[in-house]
Amino acid sequence: MLIRYKKSFEKIAMGLMSFMPTEKELKKLQQTMKDYEENDNWQLFLWKVEDIIGIIGIVMDEDSYTIQHISVSPSHRGQGCGKEMVKALKEMYPGKSVKTTEYTTAFIEKCDFEQ
Fold it and tell me: Does domain 2-110 fall into CATH 3.40.630.30?
């Protein structure tokens, strides 16, 4: 299930976010987390089964959202968690179109996600 990011989840969220190719440097990662905390249109969600095993981050526009970040714990990859996060997000924001970045496009296309 998707749960909205809170400051108390910062360490696990940073750990999962660090798997993204754009978030390898600590200063960049810290700035990204700050953006999710301070910008109303930046929204970060954690995927919780028994534990938190994934994150998905979006930037909202008026009629769409862009999937900026998506990451699953290495020990849970290949089990459909990423696809489930995308599906849950689509259900959360029906009617909004989905955009991707150069880092999330390939994964979203692999999910057969209708854009």
Answer: yes
Residues 40-50 have a mean pLDDT of: 96
Residue 11 has pLDDT above 80, yes or no: yes
Q: Per-domain residue ranges for the chain? A: 2-110
In which band, very low, low, confident or very high, does the pLDDT at 109 lie, cut at 50, 70 and 90?
Answer: confident
CA–CA gap between residue 45 and residue 48 (Å, rounded): 10
**What SS3 state is found at 42?**
strand
Nearest to 68 by CA among 109, 40, 38, 98: 98
Residue 112, pLDDT score: 64
- Number of Cβ atoms within 10 Å of the Cβ of 73: 17
CB hemisphere CA count around 77 (13 angstroms): 9
